[in-house]
Every structure is written in structure tokens, then in C-alpha cells.
């Protein structure tokens, strides 16, 4: 009852039987303070939310102990998940059960997709509901559940993604280097940029793109000019372009002042 003695709905799960008091990783890939906090979130807005494993959500399967017969796999966003390898999946009873995976393969049901994920040892991911089609752009793909189609130029396929997530203002999140070689304040900020542009972005690695050897490639790019007698390297700043030497070409070596050794293409004939 509220102050006006009128009934109201409240989320007050019974947490008395919970023995693990530490943080837990939810099925949504988010870390919750404890299992009771997760149960409250499930009550409020996520009825299918479950505990995946005890401890904070991780980016690797190392030190992840999945309950029961479930197996740890790492998805396309480098998050560790626990999935169950069902030996037998029931045959689909409706065409609405078909799912298109991120690998471009049509799966008969969510069960078949989970089974393939488990056997593969890494997440395949759901591109969109229904059978896979030969889409030329996101205009050919119909997303459901408020999702938006993002185009993956690397493989030439579309993927339906949630684009309603609001990024927290907290500065505690770690920056990430994305597949467009740009640094984003967080993985959430990267997803926000992807939703804004309609182009799929994925995490290449944690931290700034300027870190370690990426700093070298970020600050300089190589322009190769073909010549019949010689080749040379022109260095310029603040570009995101770099190239590795193909094994079948003759190579020269150029050493920068910072000591980083790179292979240069030699087009001498």
C-alpha cells in the first residue's frame, strides 16, 4: 500500500535463501552487485534474466565456472557466456522459429543455434529472425523488437541490433579500440556510434587504439609509390592507414626513431 492506502506493485524478491553474496554475471552480459539485485532487475523489466555465473562478467572464459552442464563461450563482443549443449533439439513446428545467424547460416530454432554455438566453442550470434536472405543492404532486412539493422561491410551482411541503450555518464568504464580503428570512451559509446551511422562496429581490443603498437600505426601511415628502379616510404601523421608486407614481394626495412621496425614493400623489377 502507498501513502494514500492504495495498492501498488513492488519488486521485493525473496533473497533469504541466496548463499552467494558476491557479484554475479547476468544473462544480459551485465554485472550485478549480487543475485538479489539481479532478481529485482528481472522483476522490473527483464522477465527472462538469469544468473549465468558467479563473479563479475568477464571478457574471457578463464576463471569462469558455468553451472551444471553448460559451457563457457566468448561471443562476438568478447563477452563470456555460459551456454548449454543440447544433444537433441525438437524439430521446428513453425516457420517463425527459423533464425539467421551472424555466420549467414539459417538455424531451425534458437535451440539449434545454441547447440551450434556450444559445439563451435564461440558465439555465433543472432543476425535477425527468419531464414537468411541474400540482402544487398539493410533495406532488405526487417528487424523486430525495436532493433535496428547495422551493416557489416567486412562480410557484406546485415545484423539487427538493439539501439535504445543509454550510456552511463560514469567515467569508470574502459575505452575500447573499435573495428574502424577509432577509440571510444566505452563499449556502449561504440555501440551508440554504430547505431547512429548504421554501420556495425566491433571491439578490436580494450584500451585506446594509440596503445602499444597501435600508437605507431595511428600516428604514421605509409604511402607506397611504385617505381621501376626504387621504392620509398613517405611518413605522415594522424592517419589510420597501415599495411603489412606480402610474403611474395621483396622487402626493405625502415627503422623509425622510436625503434619500431616495419616491413616496406619493394616494387623493384
TrEMBL record:
Under the heading SMART domains, the entry gives: FOLN, KAZAL
Q: Is Protein biosynthesis one of the keywords UniProt gives this record?
A: no
PROSITE patterns in alphabetical order: KAZAL_2
Q: Where is the Kazal-like domain?
A: 1-59, 83-134, 161-211
Cross-referenced InterPro entries, in alphabetical order? Fol_N, Kazal_dom, Kazal_dom_sf, Prot_Inhib_GrowthFact_Antg
Tree of life domain:
Eukaryota
- What keywords appear on the UniProt entry? Disulfide bond
Q: Is the keyword Disulfide bond assigned to this protein?
A: yes
Q: Name one GO biological process term.
A: cell differentiation
Q: Name one GO cellular component term.
A: extracellular region
What protein name does the entry list?
Follistatin
Amino acid at each position: 500500500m502507498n501513502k494514500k492506502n492504495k495498492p501498488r506493485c513492488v519488486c521485493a524478491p525473496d533473497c533469504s535463501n541466496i548463499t552467494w553474496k558476491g557479484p554475479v554475471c547476468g544473462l544480459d552480459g551485465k554485472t550485478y552487485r549480487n543475485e538479489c539485485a539481479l532478481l529485482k532487475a528481472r522483476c522490473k523489466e527483464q522477465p527472462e534474466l538469469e544468473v549465468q555465473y558467479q563473479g563479475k562478467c568477464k571478457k574471457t572464459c578463464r576463471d569462469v565456472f558455468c553451472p551444471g552442464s553448460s559451457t563457457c563461450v566468448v561471443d562476438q563482443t568478447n563477452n563470456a557466456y555460459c551456454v548449454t549443449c543440447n544433444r537433441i533439439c525438437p524439430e521446428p513446428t513453425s516457420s517463425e522459429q527459423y533464425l539467421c545467424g551472424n555466420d549467414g547460416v539459417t538455424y531451425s530454432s534458437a535451440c539449434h543455434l545454441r547447440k551450434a554455438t556450444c559445439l563451435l566453442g564461440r558465439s555465433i550470434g543472432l543476425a535477425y529472425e527468419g531464414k537468411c536472405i541474400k540482402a544487398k543492404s539493410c533495406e532488405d532486412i526487417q528487424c523486430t523488437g525495436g532493433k535496428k539493422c547495422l551493416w557489416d561491410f567486412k562480410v557484406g551482411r546485415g545484423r539487427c541490433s538493439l539501439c535504445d541503450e543509454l550510456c552511463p555518464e560514469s567515467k569508470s568504464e574502459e575505452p575500447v579500440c573499435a573495428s574502424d580503428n577509432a577509440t571510444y570512451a566505452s563499449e556502449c559509446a561504440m555501440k551508440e556510434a554504430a547505431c547512429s551511422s548504421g554501420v556495425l562496429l566491433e571491439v578490436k581490443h580494450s584500451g585506446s587504439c594509440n596503445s602499444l603498437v597501435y600508437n605507431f600505426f595511428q600516428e604514421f601511415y605509409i604511402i607506397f609509390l611504385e617505381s621501376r628502379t626504387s621504392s620509398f616510404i613517405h611518413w605522415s601523421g594522424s592517419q589510420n592507414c597501415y599495411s603489412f608486407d606480402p610474403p611474395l614481394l621483396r622487402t626493405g626495412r625502415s627503422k623509425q626513431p622510436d625503434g619500431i621496425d616495419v616491413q616496406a614493400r619493394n616494387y623493384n623489377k
